[in-house]
Amino acid sequence: MSEEIIKLDKINVTFEQKNKRIDAVKEVTLHVNKGDIYGVVGYSGAGKSTLVRVINLLQLPTSGRVEIGGAVLYQKDEQTENIIDTKTLREKRRKIGMIFQHFNLLNEQTIIQNVAFALKHSGLKEKEIQEKAQNLLNLVGLDGRENSYPVQLSGGQQQRVAIARALANDPEILISDEATSALDPKNTIQILDLLKDLNAKLGLTVVLITHEMDAVKRIANKVAVMDSGEIVERGDLLQIFTNAKEKITREFIGGSAKAIATLQDYQLAKLQQDEQIFQLTYSDKNVSEPILIRLYKDFGVEANIIYSNIEVLRGTPVGTLFVIIKGSLENQKQALEYLKSQRIIITKISEQTLVEGGSAK
Ligand SMILES: Nc1ncnc2c1ncn2[C@@H]1O[C@H](COP(=O)(O)OP(=O)(O)OP(=O)(O)O)[C@@H](O)[C@H]1O
């Protein structure tokens, strides 16, 4: 079984202001396996930053339990509050790197000095610090730039420095809080690919906070959707993309999920008695196979495509078709069995699904 490196249980964070109480995080349980790239998406104000700051107790929860790498950092229920001692907390925090939208580099220092700064309390000798800082810069693709100053670098390069700095104390976890939000599309892709690379090379667990589903699609294996302080949906990337239940998830995913709204407005009313709508999702080698032609030839079932889309999830093309299948019930049943045998995920688009997802814009 995979090891759960982050275990947040029943986390609540409430901010009390003069006349106002803000429940920023409500009863959130989030478990992240070692080696996951776990995307947390949501609109601004959903509570994403507050939730991830709980992981290293930069934000103390109002109640709940925080366990990181098997150590309980914080636990509070009605009777008791237990928090790990300051010294151990400081050590634990060093094992959790963080990067942000703003790179927060020291502008008067060269980039190698910026990285070395994070090693000040590492116990290493000055020469070892310099060597390690250089290796980290090499790791993030900045060899040869060590004596540049932050202003001499592009945004993407500055974020690489911030990543090298975040990795200085060999963290097992990296929290990325909107780290690509200020970057142009090309740099965004490069930084995301670097995070994926570090995840593969170092076994680094990444928590990726973002409002951009494209970032999640590119590198995450799991995703949670936050809305008004709660996680409203979560799962494996493919599962969420093929079978999102919540309207807000569909809004984030766009593409085929949005097509459901169009179906409600347009297609469903036109269905004949011997017709049903299905969403077919297929990946890998299936993508190019002429499956629908076989449905007609082998099973006498007509399949009329009303929407098609291809997404690339973690480098794998995933196709989605919405089809109206027409034929006798028995033939339809056989055709669906055939599709299943081809490892195609079939979701019947029922009236209920359409109503639930229908108002997505
Ligand atoms: N220190 C604080 N004091 C009071 N309210 C806060 C504080 N920090 C966050 N909040 C409020 O908590 C809610 C959640 O904010 P949070 O920053 O976690 O959301 P977010 O999903 O990360 O959005 P963004 O991407 O805009 O940061 C918001 O209503 C915010 O105004």
TrEMBL record:
One of its GO terms (biological process) is amino acid transport. InterPro entries: AAA+_ATPase, ABC_transporter-like_ATP-bd, ABC_transporter-like_CS, ACT-like_dom_sf, MetN_ABC_transporter-like, NIL_domain, P-loop_NTPase. Residues 6-253 form the ABC transporter domain. Keywords: Amino-acid transport, ATP-binding, Cell membrane, Membrane, Nucleotide-binding, Translocase, Transport. SUPFAM superfamilies: ACT-like, P-loop containing nucleoside triphosphate hydrolases. GO terms for molecular function: ATP binding; ATP hydrolysis activity. It holds the Pfam family NIL. This is Methionine ABC transporter ATP-binding protein. It comes from Ligilactobacillus ubinensis.
